[in-house]
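Reader question, answered in our methods column.
A reader sent in the components of a multi-part assembly and asked whether the whole thing could be modeled at once rather than chain by chain. We filled in our standard form and ran it. Here is what they sent:
COMPLEX SIZE: two components
ENTRIES:
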Amino acid sequence: KKVEHAIEETISVYKQIHSLPQPMLLREQHYQYLKKGLRHLSDAYECLDASRPWLCFWILHSLELLEEPIPPAVASDVCQFLAHCQSPTGGFAGGPGQHAHLAPTYAAVNALCIIGTEEAYSVIDREKLLDFLWSLKQPDGSFVMHIGGEVDVRSAYCAASVASLTNIMASKLFEDTTNWILSCQNWEGGLSGVPGLEAHGGYTFCGMAALVILGKEHMLDLKALLRWVVSRQMRFEGGFQGRCNKLVDGCYSFWQAGLLPLLHRALFNDGTC
Amino acid sequence: MSSAEEPSSEAPEVKEHKEFDVEAEDHFGDSYGAEPTRYIFYRDRKEWADLEPVPQDDGPDPVVKIAYCEKFADVYDYFRALLKKDERSERAFALTADAIELNAANYTVWHYRRVLLQALSKDLREEMKYITNIIEDQPKNYQVWHHRRMVVEWLNDPSEELEFIADTLSQDAKNYHAWQHRQWVIQEYKLWDNELEFVENLLVEDVRNNSAWNQRHFVISHTTGFSDPAVVQREIQYCLNQIRKAPHNESAWNYLKGMLQDRGLSSRPGLLEKVLELKETHCSPYLLAFLFDCYEDALESSFQKENMEQEQKETLKKALEEKDTIRKEYWQFLGRSVKNKYGGNGPSNDPVAEEVKQSVPVSEAQEIS
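And here is the structure of the entire assembly that came back:
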């Protein structure tokens, strides 16, 4: 109740300031913000110095959604920069000279696919990328995020995504990965980061999306997953929470709501829809 | 790995507005008038004069170029130099601490620090103190917790862990990294004994703490298991007690269902009655959903068509559409897809046609075949 009251106050202030009944997407302001960020970022972004391919991906993806074209020169600069982030042993790092890591690898490959030019595709060293993925594979089917790094379900999604986009899906690479991801579905119906933990929107998206790529999403308890994710929508705010009894957050409008089209298709194929 | 995968404690846009924040090290001298401690750039330190700094190679026309402050660029120019040489020295070890302070999400620096810890046979107890302090400062970072795990493994000593994690949880009872570390320690070193008690205390503090409910499930499934009838009875009782105290606590209802669903919700004698009693005084959308699931389970496990259960389900479905409005479409969808199983003409060979057919409003009389 306290949370709803606090939000109610904020929303009513917003409504007093804005005359239109519906919030408007400020396309031009977003475009300027993104255009600038693609070139320059303040020192407040030092904390993301090991995630620069992510900055490229988030910005390019947003521009694509806004249907704003990327000038060829800029696209080419992005390609060259990401090439500087590629590791000699395969995969992409958070910045030039850093070690390869699955998250910036996901970001870099997807950013290059958004650009979609020959130059972009040719940046990726596919053979080395496969070597990199193999080097992270664990006996139980999971992947570490980087050499000497941690395991959680994000890695399976990052690996599956880049492997399928670059067409390097070796049949044995994801052996046991399906079962490992399935073991992340818990008593709540959602998926956790590693088996045993609480169901969480970000990890659930990663797990389910990975299984969709591997063609194994039907092995989940889809009914339980659907019940869990619809229960994450907040009755007052309308947005989604990441976990049961936690607060709403805009990012979950992607991680949680994004599960619904995936579930719809899975259930449709299942004959349930 | 950056903290980008979890909402960071301070988003860059927020940081940008804090123009007047000055880092402690930039103060020339402290406020009590003692001997001034100036920060000296690595490029000006005599003991580093032999090393040529390596500027970052972004390429000719970089994108997402960060305007590093002078201190950041200086430290990382020297970090890159050390990495290039693969220098394994005390001074390299000391520099990693500076690099970490500037960006604790730089996993390359953490990796290098671990290489140095081993190469220089550093005191791991000291490293535990160090990582304790870093985590206290930045508890929502992947690298710091992973580093702690590595040190604990090397020492093969988990003796400080449960208390340390408990302390972290006392500041944020739902910190996902903390819970992950806790589950790892408990499973690895078999420290199950007092965990149920720990969970119960957390639930006394906040019965809505879903992380604690999850931990409860974790402990029980790895110790007694949920097959023991005495355990199940105790857990059911515990849930119902918590529900009486806080009826709108979704966690308790989810736990009840989660615990029983494998055996079937309708397999527990007497539970349905207790929940129907609660419906009068402690009703909630979660209670209604639980009843709905009970009736559905009863229908699934019986071979004949049970009219009472079917009708109860219909009534509950309508109640849920009214009371749990945000999920109205979902409850309607459930009604449609289950109808294909138990009512109407049975499963259709054409799911698309079936869905289209069902989405057209049908009069009451036609719904019951």
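What stands out: Strands of chain B lie at 65-66. The radius of gyration of chain B is 29 Å.
Send us your own complexes using the same form.
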